[in-house]
Write a structure and sequence with these properties.
Elements lengths: L2 H13 L5 H4 L9 H14 L4 E5 L7 H17 L3 E5 L3 H7 L2 E6 L2 E7 H6 L4 H8 L15 E16 L4 E12 L2 E3 L3 E6 L5 H8 L6 E6 L2 E2 L5 H10 E4 L13 H11 L8 H11 L16 H13 L5 E5 L7 H18 L2 E5 L3 H7 L2 E6 L2 E7 H6 L4 H10 L1
Parallel strand pairs: 1-2, 8-13, 8-14, 11-12, 12-13
Antiparallel strand pairs: 3-4, 5-6, 5-7, 5-9, 9-10, 14-15
Helix pairs in contact: 1-3, 10-11, 10-12, 11-12
The protein binds adenosine-5'-triphosphate (ATP) and magnesium ion.
The site of magnesium ion (MG) has 5 residues, from helix 8.
């Protein structure tokens, strides 16, 4: 790579808000957080100074502070480069912030069009009115006073080594998660919020024993470090994860029924009953029509696909479900439905959730407890309502302010 190219790449990386750009130049996509990957994509699009930039949900995976930065950046580029911007999103706050003109689409048609202010202040079409009114609200079912502790971590730590040269000498660490401690009870949701790259996903993966970590993780009182490989395999059933992207996380070559049933055989779940019977039951539970079970993922909407992903987790009757930005790719009305579904399943099965999201309104509607992460540390923790009403840390206040 020439010096000029390198300088330009660094400039672009800094422009899109990647911290320590210099040290991340050699990183592969899987070594970046979800938000960092998104920022690299934006940098790639900006590299050729386009005349029109089509941005399809470009800030969906980003936390509010970075999102605000990216929106400011796009607005600035629009002006300085005279660039047109076609901005596609389900997030109305983002539209309000960035758009001069707005088109509202439903079922393949533009149902309303006009200057942003007019559309927001005086929506004409019933669908626009419905979109503007939809916001996740309410609270989860209170946790039983005698609820048992499901997960406890003590000084859990994940540092990824940065290796250089032929000998792969470790020259430093990406301190993804510094020693932190959390606890979650049966029927309880712990919300994890924090800016992009703050260590949210990494912490959840370490708890699930999907990546190496230091420190203690207790599951129903048992120290997981003592568990054999075979015992850990049973943990794969008890702890499930649902990802953000309902497109990428479902295999396009498998039918809905195959996707949901995949784990049943592996984990020997309820062998007295036919898999299709269990699939039918769980599809009904998550609000999908069992008659559609032989369809492929692309034949479902984004919200339905997310329901399939939830069904795939639920069919195994897990004890803990990690929800990593499960509603971020969905539009508001669908988000509200998924939040209600998740709360309902929690109540019915006493599930514990780790709920990761940069969307503070959704976190508030889902969580009993919340931890706020920043650069690998938990900077604030507490009961959800208190934390949202009276944030102690400046950083939490900033996140809240940026979300309004
Ligand atoms: N396999 C890996 N190797 C090296 N560094 C990694 C790896 N996985 C994550 N990281 C780094 O660890 C930090 C935390 O990443 P993580 O994915 O936990 O962030 P996050 O809080 O989930 O962010 P986002 O909201 O963008 O998804 C980031 O700086 C990321 O680049
Ligand atoms: Mg993440």
């Amino acid at each position: 790579m020439g010096a000029a190219a390198r300088a330009r790449i660094l400039e672009l990386m800094q422009k899109v808000g990647i911290r320590d750009a210099e040290s991340r130049l050699g990183a592969y996509p899987h070594e970046l957080s979800g938000g960092q990957r998104q920022r690299v994509m934006i940098a790639m699009a900006l590299a050729n100074k386009p005349e029109v930039l089509i941005a399809d949900e470009p800030t969906t995976a980003l936390d509010v502070t970075i999102q605000a930065q990216i929106l400011d950046l796009l607005a600035e580029l629009k002006k300085s480069e005279g660039m047109g911007l076609l901005f596609i999103t389900h997030d109305l706050n983002v539209v309000r912030r960035i758009a001069d003109r707005v088109c509202v689409m439903k079922g393949g048609e533009i149902v309303e069009e006009g200057p942003a202010a007019a559309v927001f202040d005086n929506p004409q079409h019933p669908y626009t009115q419905k979109l503007l009114a939809a916001e996740p609200s309410g609270q989860p079912e209170p946790v039983a006073p005698d609820a048992a502790e499901m997960i406890r971590t003590q000084d859990l730590k994940v540092w990824f080594p940065i290796q250089k040269g032929l000998l792969k000498r470790t020259v430093g660490y990406v301190k993804a998660v510094n020693p932190t401690s959390i606890s979650v009870r049966t029927g309880e949701t712990l919300g994890i919020v924090g800016e992009s790259g703050s260590g949210k996903t990494t912490m959840a993966l370490a708890i699930m024993r999907l990546i190496a970590s230091e420190g203690e993780v207790r599951f129903c009182g048992d120290d997981l470090r003592q568990w054999s490989t075979k015992e850990l395999r049973s943990l794969r059933k008890d702890m499930q994860i649902v990802f953000q992207d309902p497109f990428g996380s479902l295999s396009p070559r498998m039918t809905c029924a195959q996707i949901i049933a995949e784990g049943l055989a592996i984990h020997n779940v309820d062998q007295h009953r036919a898999p299709r019977e269990l699939v039918t039951e769980v599809m009904q539970e998550v609000g999908l029509d069992p008659a559609t079970m032989d369809r492929y993922p692309h034949e479902f909407s984004g919200g339905q696909r997310q329901r399939i992903a939830i069904a795939r987790a639920m069919v195994l009757r897990p004890k803990l479900v990690v929800l990593d930005e499960p509603t971020s790719a969905l539009d508001m009305t669908v988000q509200v439905q998924i939040v209600e579904l998740l709360r309902d399943l929690q109540k019915r099965y006493g599930l514990a959730y780790l709920f990761i999201s940069h969307d503070l309104n959704v976190v508030r509607a889902m969580s009993h407890q919340v931890v706020v992460m920043k650069q690998g540390d938990i900077v604030e923790a507490g009961v959800s309502e208190e934390l949202f009403e009276h944030p102690k840390e400046d950083y939490t206040g900033q996140l809240l302010a940026a979300a309004r």
